[in-house]
């Protein structure tokens, strides 16, 4: 059994996604900032920056997604063969 | 004397007074033309009225007493009125010609002036670059390029290419060089500003080698002021462009990651629109794959919430990286291939694919419930590959993938081809890939 039957069939790129992709493609200039300078407390800062990233890529604690559950079932089925 | 000539004379004399006083802001304001574009109709055309012919700016300035650089300032003021006149008649090509002349002359003047000249020089430089960008986006540019290419091809042969980009870069290099080689070091504070103007131009016209060469020049330049001493708009922009150049060499990727993370930390915390937010998106487009490749960091739910356009476009890719879902990863990357190529990040996603497989193999080993959990039949991995990718895998293909990951030290163990198993190291078979950010 392979993912093409087990996993959800991929949908075509939605209209909303196509619009966003186009905007990201076209808005490729790094703009001139409207302000020349700002103080550290007006910047994104280290704390907020830290919240944007997740270090749990290698953890198995949250392996409870649909894909992993079906992978486990597939491997178990294989074991029993 | 007619009213228009009188107004012209007043204008030149006021200009001259500001220059004599070294009034940086007033001279910059007097040389600016982009902020006057919306009110051009109300500005008299001193070229059409023949005012500059009858009373040349240089003569007017000289008659009011000599000052340093007066000859060049005469040319600058003459160029400025011609520039406004060209803009009034929507002649962009002439406007660019006069704007370039102004940058060249103010650069010459700057060699013998101290720090006060930096702001006027910045104004004329940035406005020239913006004028060229406006022209390029106009329909006039397409028509001009076609007709000129045709003409020049007839004249010089098929190899000729119109090089507005090269002309612009040549002019923009002048103020950069003046500040970089400033012996008094007063004007070095403006180096990053002019470097950014050149970076924007090189990247826009895809002159990546020129951008690389400029980085080398900057790296070997003595006594540059620290980035912390210039306004954040300049330091963030500089770090972004420098990181873009560093990204071209995979061995410099860690440096690029540090520059981009620092650029984002220093970026203004803006509402979800406008230029500043767009710049954060531009930084993150690089940072998402690079932070994964360097530190195995994934974008967090907070990132997706704060940047919905990135969530719509990239969330499924990183979800696939987390799951080890090869099919989803390949399909999602294929869907946005053009975007990734246009934003110069496609190669990072190609480099991320082995990590998706690594994650899949790690899960497969973790889920294995045999007697000896470190000796796992290759069939298990072949099944996992097949399930994840949506196609049939052969055992040889699986062995090749595993061997590649063992070779790159992402998996510790060996393959026993005869017994059709992989023997994983009992200690730490999947060494931690996550490394803390320095």
TrEMBL record, chain A:
GO biological process: double-strand break repair via homologous recombination; mRNA export from nucleus; proteasome assembly
InterPro entries: DSS1_SEM1 (IPR007834)
Keyword set, alphabetical order: Nucleus, Proteasome
Region listing for Disordered, in residue ranges: 23-65
Location(s), subcellular: Nucleus
Leader peptide range in chain numbering: none
GO cellular component terms given for this protein: nucleus; proteasome regulatory particle, lid subcomplex
One protein family per Pfam: DSS1_SEM1
Keyword Zinc: no
Annotated Acidic residues bias: 25-39, 55-65
Function, as annotated: Component of the 26S proteasome, a multiprotein complex involved in the ATP-dependent degradation of ubiquitinated proteins.
Family designation: Belongs to the DSS1/SEM1 family.
Protein name: 26S proteasome complex subunit SEM1
Native source organism of the sequence: Dekkera bruxellensis (Brettanomyces custersii)
Lineage, uppermost ranks: Eukaryota, Fungi, Dikarya, Ascomycota, Saccharomycotina
Automatic annotation (TrEMBL), chain B:
Protein origin, superkingdom: Eukaryota
Residues covered by the PCI domain: 245-429
MF annotations from Gene Ontology: double-stranded DNA binding; RNA binding
Family: Belongs to the CSN12 family.
The protein, known as: DEBR0S3_02476g1_1
Organism of derivation: Dekkera bruxellensis (Brettanomyces custersii)
